[in-house]
């Protein structure tokens, strides 16, 4: 409920606010729902002036309904699907990462979360020619690994350098720096990064749990509130700037011994899609040490618990990606 104040809009001066109060009109809602003609007579003000005030108050303080059709059209025009470059993950994600949404990769140590994130960054920068923000909170990102992945895609050093230029890396190791970084990206930093390169299409945070989980549990209430702030700024950034947010999370074991993503129930509502990565244990473990399984554990598009296997080795993954069907129409991503 917004209380009427002098100067809220042109024409709403001290005298009029007093007269309206005397007529029991104290809030914006009161003005909007009153009979303007009758109110104009009671307050001895012109109908035209009161009508103009009501129109401005309506524009500034109320939500306008939009039709479902308009909303759907806006969604179609603003949403892009970014292939991860990994056909197995694209299959689980129903073609790739959706802009405007948060997607989560969870898994235990060594399950390949970071390797997958590097691969996604390389694919978006090299194949889609778009910029990526990579927020590294574990210190796991190295330029040499990115270059190694790019070398598997192209032998042209100029193209490799151009792709590296489009990956913007922030290294930070606590939640306050993460929040600072996300707020500054949301308040204009994303557009600045886009200048000179492709527009930013993805923000990757590897790992979000590394900076949040130390603050949860025990008697610390602050941790939960900071986690919700991270979630809020990531969500609004994804929506307002039409970027895909990809975050990584650690895992815990449930009471029945099942692996589940960390950060608890409150966080579980934040990502729209969640994928669990695990090592594939085989009879000949050495030759298959880079095999991973990905299980869809939350999705609004696909049935949950579908599972795909893939190889973390980037060279073989690249060949697989280039020979397989491309799910992303690259021209759509701009
Ligand atoms: N250069 C490389 N080429 C191929 N595979 C690699 C390379 N470096 C690491 N790996 C594979 O990736 C695995 C580690 O994956 P990654 O660091 O992505 O795990 P993670 O899930 O991020 O783990 P953590 O939670 O501990 O950070 C290694 O066990 C190895 O199998």
UniProtKB/TrEMBL annotation:
Subcellular locations according to the entry: Nucleus
Key word tRNA-binding present: no
Region (Disordered): 314-334
Entry keyword annotation includes Thylakoid: no
Listed GO biological process terms: DNA strand invasion; double-strand break repair via homologous recombination; reciprocal meiotic recombination; telomere maintenance
GO MF annotation, one: single-stranded DNA binding
GO cellular component: chromosome, telomeric region; microtubule organizing center; Rad51B-Rad51C-Rad51D-XRCC2 complex; replication fork
Alphabetized UniProt keyword annotations: ATP-binding, DNA damage, DNA recombination, DNA repair, DNA-binding, Nucleotide-binding, Nucleus
Location of the RecA family profile domain: 78-251
Listed Basic and acidic residues bias regions: 317-334
Biological function: Involved in the homologous recombination repair (HRR) pathway of double-stranded DNA breaks arising during DNA replication or induced by DNA-damaging agents. Bind to single-stranded DNA (ssDNA) and has DNA-dependent ATPase activity. Part of the RAD51 paralog protein complex BCDX2 which acts in the BRCA1-BRCA2-dependent HR pathway. Upon DNA damage, BCDX2 acts downstream of BRCA2 recruitment and upstream of RAD51 recruitment. BCDX2 binds predominantly to the intersection of the four duplex arms of the Holliday junction and to junction of replication forks.
UniProt subunit comment: Part of the BCDX2 complex consisting of RAD51B, RAD51C, RAD51D and XRCC2; the complex has a ring-like structure arranged into a flat disc around a central channel. In the absence of DNA, the BCDX2 subcomplex XRCC2:RAD51D formed a multimeric ring structure; in the presence of single-stranded DNA it formed a filamentous structure with the ssDNA. Interacts with SWSAP1 and ZSWIM7; involved in homologous recombination repair. Interacts with BLM; required for stimulation of BLM activity by the BCDX2 subcomplex XRCC2:RAD51D.
Family that this chain belongs to: Belongs to the RecA family. RAD51 subfamily.
Protein name from the UniProt record: DNA repair protein RAD51 homolog 4
Organism: Perca fluviatilis (European perch)
